[in-house]
Amino acid sequence: MSVLLGDDNRRESSPFINSENDRGQYYDGKNMEEMDSNPMVSSLLNKLANYTNLPQGVREHEEAENEDGVRRVTVMGPQMGTFIGVYLPCMQNILGVILFLRLTWIVGTAGILGSFAIVSMCCACTLLTAISMSAIATNGVVPAGGSYYMISRSLGPEFGGAVGLCFYLGTTFAGSMYILGTIEILLTYIVPDAAIFVAATKEDESAAMLNNMRVYGSCCLALMALVVFVGVKYVNKLALVFLAWVVLSIMAIYAGVIRTVIEPPDFPICLLGNRTLKNDQFDKCLKTEVVKNITYTTDLWSLFCESKHLNATCDDYFSVNNVTEIQGIPGLLSGVIKENLWGDYGPVEMLIEKKSMPSVAVKDNTNDIYKPYVFNDIATYFTLLVGIYFPSVTGIMAGSNRSGDLRDAQRSIPIGTILAIATTSFIYISCVVLFGACIEGVVLRDKFGDSVKKNLVVGTLAWPSPWVIVIGSFFSCCGAGLQSLTGAPRLLQAIARDGIVPFLQVFGHGKANGEPTWALLLTAGICEIGILIASLDAVAPILSMFFLMCYLFVNLACAVQTLLRTPNWRPRFKFYHWTLSFLGMSLCLSLMFISSWYYALVAMVIAGCIYKYIEYRGAEKEWGDGIRGLSLNAARYALIRLEESPPHTKNWRPQLLVLCKLDPDMLVKHPRLLSFTSQLKAGKGLTIVCSVLEGTYMTRGNDAKTGEENLKAAMSAERTKGFAHVVVASNLRDGFSLLIQSAGLGGMKHNAVLMAWPAGWKQAPDSYAWKNFIETVRETTSAHQALLVAKNIDHFPGNQERLKEGTIDVWWIVHDGGLLMLLPFLLRQHKVWRKCKMRIFTVAQIDDNSIQMKKDLQMFLYHLRLDAEVEVVEMHGSDISAFTYEKTLVMEQRSQMLRQMQLSRTEREREAQLIHDRNTASHSALNDKSATTSPENVHMTWTKDKLVNERTKNREGNVGVKDIFNMKPEWENLNQSNVRRMHTAVKLNEAVVNKSQNSQLVLLNMPGPPKNKEGDENYMEFLEVLMEGLDRVLLVRGGGREVITIYS
Prior knowledge:
single chain, alpha/beta, Amino acid/polyamine transporter I, Rossmann fold, 4 domains, 51% helix, cell membrane, transmembrane helix, ion transport, SLC12A_fam, potassium
């Protein structure tokens, strides 16, 4: 299997053959020139002597110390070429336990054609993955971490962490599979008497075997973990031995096949009728034998009959069927290949039968389980065999994992890996055909060799002895298990040290020399889970899932990088194409669901959970990954599409430009403005939070960056998702104007502006505050954008608060496209405002039918699918009160005085306070007095038609104010337009305060500013009067388009 990398790159200096003195001499002085000047045979022997299947980062750090424990500096040895560095490690990782223990059974069960399909699919999958991997591995150096590094740097930390951990789990379960394979060989073929648990009955045999596997497997795991903990140098020293046995075993298989042509080996199997018998309890395949003319019963007779006597009662099937002995290995030229072309699947405990043999059926088969027949130990079907076989083609990452050890990684990795896959694919496919052509079908389907005296089935074919395969497969499994236990902890250590998964940080630490002690303990713990499953056939599909998922993402990474044409994507390996990567990806996904759809779903859920965890809790990393490039491309495409046409009314939602103020410390002045934004948006749509600094960018560039960082921090604290931007302009007015005009990009532009009401505008030392505010209102109106102005924004609820009750009151005076209706609905989607009820108030005048208005409005809301209480407030004609005149007079006098006299800052503050005191006194003294004015002068309506009619009447100059000349002399010169506006504001404010003083939020139509700039200050006064006595107010000005519709 693939051996994965740790994080340390110190070199290892451990030849297997050289003596201690030679070792120091070899590594301390040898360089590339010396290596090249050696004779070719000597050079090859040196390389083989120093062959290791452990990649960089897995090297034993202890070997940098000599026997006295003193550190010595090692000189880097000669780096490896394609054959030693990539080809042999890949071969050793790919060829393993499944080839020796399960391939014959797969061929017998699936048939030659079915097995050929399985092997071809799996080998095609790894070949396509190797092509993608070669492209990624030759696009720069792949350091410690191997496949994890490739995926994380290509697809980002989320994918990298998810797939890296899946690959770690796969490698760990691979360790379990190899250990189970080791114990299966030990207990079944080498020392079957060593079993601790012995079955009392036939039914308990399977359970006893599993328990033996658990006990011995746990002991073997503990021993292997101890070896890895003590030092990888011991694993290192055995690498060449393991490789030699694997090569020797495969050569023995081919030699055995050639031998069958000359002289087939003698492995007789005994059939009763067409049923295969276990022949470990008898020697002669006879019911009776004649010795000196006397008929004796055999050991086989005793197994089926009650006694050894000829007249004993025997099993019905035994009585009516003959015993036949045939050769288990008929040979290459026997023609058995025709019988083995097709599969023979069946349920658990199905008898293994040779269909071409004659058999007499009997009715009672209940006692068959107690007879020495060979049974299926598990139910077999095509998809199960795919899952069991796939681990035998994994291990293709071994070359890319060791790129730092290679003389020319850019050349060696593609050639070595693809050659190794081609070689192993040839071995597997040829073995499928040769097994089917040489071995009897019933022997192939006999998983544990019960019909050939408990011999390993593939061993029966080998020459010179079955023990070559038994010992070879035993060492192969041991070596692969040790490699898995060595590589997996270092992969976990590499992920932990990247810091992308916070809870894994502890596994980044280890011994003083970098050995991942904690990661090894976790690996051993997970490995124990696989051993407790105790069945190699059950563990194999689990690790197939994790490896397939890793290969899937390697293909995805290559495809994404190729399609994006990233400038940095310049692999030296040129024989790749995105279609091949997609084909490989599709094949991986298909194999996952073919093998086991529920394991596939579990693996995907695990990967998905890790992905989301890293996304929310993991450290932010910028690795220039392909997913970021993919996001940029997708964003560009979407923006271009969005710009083609304006959004339909059904898709309209407020895309907010939030105008924030920063204090002198560059901190956000009103953070609740951001809270309100997140409540209004609920994470949807566009939010751009902006601020303006006065000055030049040359002098205030750093302030702008600091302010932007503080804005982002405040947005994060208030859970506002969006973009932050701080601009520097010569004055605030120009800055806000530029933002309103140019913020956003393409179709992702704002359509609404949110800002806070300038609360202290009266007390301000200059008029810039309110003038900037009014100019911003004019700008948004000109740009056809909606405007939201929040009064007392600091009193608005935070995101953690929950309003238990209360109302959101909408005062719908003028139709503005439905924005007033839409905003409360959006607010109530958020948990802060969810329990608030929505009330809509509209104003009726003396000539309006209030009852009909209410019915019409209720029907309108019904069609809009909005739940709200409706109330019509009647404002009958009344005299303009003395208070109104007083307010107007004070407003005009103050404006005139401030224009005529350039008051100093102190005097203006005193003047403002004096006016405030007079206003308060006037309000309390004259609150109960009222006068009458013609109602048509009060601009209150709730439909566009009525608004047009009112304006027409006003243009006709129909100003009827009773007794206007009988007022106090100082009121005679007042601007009557200002008086009417003030009257409207005062009366409306009285109605609003009366109905909505205790509501959680009041939404009001915001009247537009005057065309003549001389009335700007009066406009601010009107708005102030309109909102007087209310706590939380949101002034809303529509953008001139319908934003809500009754249609679906």
